[in-house]
Amino acid sequence: MSTRQKMDAAANLIEGWTLPSAATLGSSVRARGIVREVRAHLPLAAKKLLGIEVGALRMPEGAYGDFRTASAIVSKTLEGIEGLPVIPREVEDILTISSAERHRWLKDGRLQSTGTRTVKLRGRARKVTFHVFDPRHIEDVLDRDLVTVWREDDAIAAAENRRRAAGKAALKRAQKSGRRAASAPDSTRDEVSRQKLKGWDEFESDGLLR
Fold it and tell me: How far is it, in rounded angstroms, from Cα 154 to Cα 152?
């Protein structure tokens, strides 16, 4: 559960929440994602009052009742926020990886998806579907430095693939050269045959084969 800090200012009611590291995983992108998640539960008029810079909800002092309502929503939404699924851009920021690496490791099962989410982004007509991840799985990958291990494995696999490709290319060239040699006339054999047949007419005229 988040740590709550409360204070009253002269002109504003201010209430702040410190997001636990287990929720943000050290990522500012993840922190912004959590704020967006919390804002989604707030009334329209209160959405912009939750600031990410200081993690504070601010409302004019005269709107105490509305402030209390919004504050209660924020507090309830933050309960168990550590379990909020991690979306792709957050994964890339937490693990410091590229989109290509995320796609590759998701495809081969090293990054384990917990399902998909479909949303309609602002300004886009079509909906977008993407994989989401268990924050504890991402935390485990981070803590065990598996990204370094996976990159080393990928480098070894890439080198092996290049070696195999070079071997196949060399074999193909050799086979192609062999086919050309087999289809070419054997000039040496023809020359030997001509030498053996030299004088054949004289041999036959002597009647030695009769």
Answer: 5
